[in-house]
Every structure is written in structure tokens, then in C-alpha cells.
Amino acid sequence: MTGLFAEEIDLSQYEKSFYSQNGEDGVLAKIFQLIGPRSRFCVEFGAYDGVTGSNTHFLRLQGWNCLLLDRTFEIPELFLYREFITAENITEIFDKYNVPFDLDLLSIDIDYNDFYVWKEIDEKYHPAVVLIEVNATHVPSEDKVAKYHPFFSGDSTNYYGASILALYHLGKAKGYSLVYAEKAGVNLFFIRDDILKEKNLQFKDMNDVQRLYRYPTYGRGPNGGHRDDPKKRKYLTSKEILASDGLYIK
């Protein structure tokens, strides 16, 4: 700290994987070192078998309580349950499993409807940190969200999810700042604004989608990523989706 101004933290220095795919373990460890865990509770959507590629298993090994949800796997001893998550049922699922209102981490990776599910979680639930999959095929000037289909999980094309700009708008509407985009172009990290203010934290390029954006490194589609959508389906914008709920973004 220098005077009243927080030193910028560069989260790219902390990417490291023990179980996660793209360095999420290290970034989350650094974030929670800075903000301090409160409930030590996390929820992960699209958790697979609860270990392979997990964004939360490393935390669980440190004594955290976790609720893991997946559309295929169910391993109760790992608190992993089979649920097909939609925007309509997500709050009911949280209530069903007694998720604490002040959970520390929410990790969302359901391959298609991520934007809508985060948007629809009841405001009584306020995770400190949100880690969410981004469709990095779309460059940071593009506000794009795939049209909502509750029981669809993508078709291996680049028509899915939401762009970095769209997710930034959603985070802003819900009271979060975008603090990091991992180097692989897969996930974004958000922290609640009140926590950033309380802890006087400033991250490198925070809320600057142009500087934070990373091209996807996992495919050969447009700009990297999944193959181009042969159907050329149309996208919605985050601004029109949020406006329909009475949420307006400048």
C-alpha cells in the first residue's frame, strides 16, 4: 500500500493448476488470500466428477464445504449431485441444498446458458467471487449472448454463452467488477464491488475488457475456440436482456 492508493495486483502471475484446467487454482488462492474467505463455502456448476478439471477441489482439500452440480455425475460423498440447471430452477436448487447466502465462490461452466443462470440467481445469494466461462470467440467490442434454450448444452460450435463485454455488463448490473481473464481464454473472474472497496483492492486492468481479453487457445475456430456456427444463428445483446429485467447499463 502507498498512501491511500492500493497497489495494482497482476493476477496473471498466479495462474497455477493442481486440479483445475487453466490455472484457476492459483488465481483463486491469491484472491482469497487478499479478500479473506468468510463462509468457506463454494458452489460449482458443471463439476464433472468433482476432481478432474475441478475449480473447487483444491479448496475442498483445504477444508472448504462445496456443493457440486453436474448433469451427468452424482457422487454424494463428494457432495456432487446430478442436476440439470436452468435459469428457472437455479434459485430453487440453491434453496434445496441450503446454500448459504454469503457463499465465497460460485463457479459456472454449463457450456451454453451461463449468462442467464447467473442473471437469475436470487439476489439474496451474494457470492464474493464469481468464476464464469466466457465465449472468447467474440472480441471485446462485441456484446453477444446466445439465445436462451433451457435444456440445451451447446453443439460444439461457437454459438454458446456470452462474450466478455456481455458478461462484464452482467457483472456490473449485479454489483461486481471484472478482475481477470485467464490466459487460455476460458474463464473470467469477478469480485463483489463492496469487498473491493472494503479491502481497498485494485487489480491490473480491472474492468477494462479490451486489455483483459484473451483469445481462446483451445481450438481452430474464428479467433480460436470452437468451430464457426454453420447456421449463423443470431445473438442477443446483454443490454437488451438486462433492460428487459429493468436493469440498465450505460
Q: How would you sum up this structure, described in words?
A:
The protein is an alpha/beta fold and 250 residues long. Helix content is 23%, strand content 17%. The strands form 3 sheets. The protein has a 7-stranded mixed beta sheet with strand order 4-3-2-5-6-9-8. The protein has a two-stranded parallel sheet with strand order 1-10. The protein has a two-stranded antiparallel ribbon with strand order 7-11. Helix 2 links the parallel strand 2 and strand 3. The mean pLDDT is 95.
User: Which fold does the CATH topology refer to?
Assistant: Rossmann fold
As for the number of domains, it is 1
Spatial sequence of strands, sheet with the most strands:
4-3-2-5-6-9-8
Number of helices: 8
How can the largest sheet be summarized? 7 strands, mixed
What general form does the structure show?
A: globular
Mean pLDDT metric: 95
Radius of gyration: 17 Å
Tell me the structural class.
alpha/beta
Fraction in helix? 10-25%
- In N-to-C order, the SSE pattern is EHEHEEHEHEEHEEHEHEH
What is the CATH first-level class name? Alpha Beta
Strand content: 15-25%
End-to-end CA span? 31 Å
